[in-house]
Amino acid sequence: MNILLIYPEKENNSKGFEAFFQKLFNNTTEDPLELIEISIQLPITWERKMRDLNQEKLNAKDLEWADYVIIKADSKQRTSTVKLIEKCKAAGKKIIAEGELFDSQPADFENVDHLILNQATLDPFVRDVEDNAAQRVYSTDFRKEKLRKTAYSLLGFSDYFSRNIHPFSA
What we know:
The chain is about 30% helix and about 15% strand. It contains 6 helices and 6 strands, in the order βααβαβαβαβαβ.
């Protein structure tokens, strides 16, 4: 199974030093940690690619490669997310959506194949996909597991201006 994890482009409403550095380095100042958290929940046998649309454009080869596209978005990414969903649907890809944007307005995203709401883990979805019984909506209070350090290998560290450091991570 080929999974393409995508972090949509954020609207730039930055001010002050953050806006200055973003313009200077043409980079976002944060990494898509949420995609790493999603990636570690996928079976090790599933291939993964990650694209941060704040850093690079999505190319047609990535979409052709993917069996599923996972989109993680918040309200500051709505415009980019809507365009991304249309592009993925035009390419005939199945979409898994997760994040605050989808939690707050799930009815606005009827064209998404699978919604993972309320920060639910992907475990039930993965089991259902492997059993050919995937549902449209997954919502639970069961929270994500701790972040595994090895998942950071998906990120190109030189693309990000700053790095969140979690001193209590195992």
